[in-house]
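Below is how a single chain appears once it has passed through the pipeline. First comes the sequence as given, then the structure the pipeline wrote out for it. We keep one example in the README because the format questions we get most often are answered faster by looking than by reading.
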Amino acid sequence: MSIANVAARLQHPVHADPFLALNYRFPDGEEHELEALRTTSLLEPRQRVTLTLLALGNLHAGVAEDMGLTRQEVQRLLQAASRVLRVPGRTAALIHAAYQNPAFPHPTPARGERPELAPGELNVLDSYAAALPLRKLHQPYIVTRKQVERDQTYLMAKLHARTRGHAVRRAWQLGIYARPMGPEEDRAGIRVGAVATALCAAAAGPGPAEVVP
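Resulting structure:
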């Protein structure tokens, strides 16, 4: 990269305040989440902003552009977050782990009723949160690849999600996932964060893997 390009990037406003990249990104009624993100201590500010932009359904390339960073710099931010959160380096799993932590702002609850998800759709959602490849759900003679693909399509449509990371955020907003509070959550049909955490721990290797969408 030329010196001129480096200088231009360093003049990007978000280098002084990374939270500027989140301005006007939250739907109406969710703007207070920005202030909570500013004040939390979990993760470095640029990591918080990067994860939140991805949770809102933005792609890695767009996040890099919005933050005045290269794709490689965004990758390094997510890898650092992966080490702090102690989860495999897949975007949806990082988002899920952040929301599980009491120090990270909980996404604003969504309006309306929670959609009814079929067991296969819930399995796909849990695979996102646990950083498990969808091929792990494909079991010959039991669950076909086409069934898994259909479950994924229905899941994304029911959650109105654009990406896997966005699907995890929507699941938290809709109460499908929640932080453990008491036995009443089981009666309400809420999948506490520990459900995917156990899967996530099983999927984790000796260190954070490369972060992928």
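The mean pLDDT is 84.

See the next section for the split statistics.
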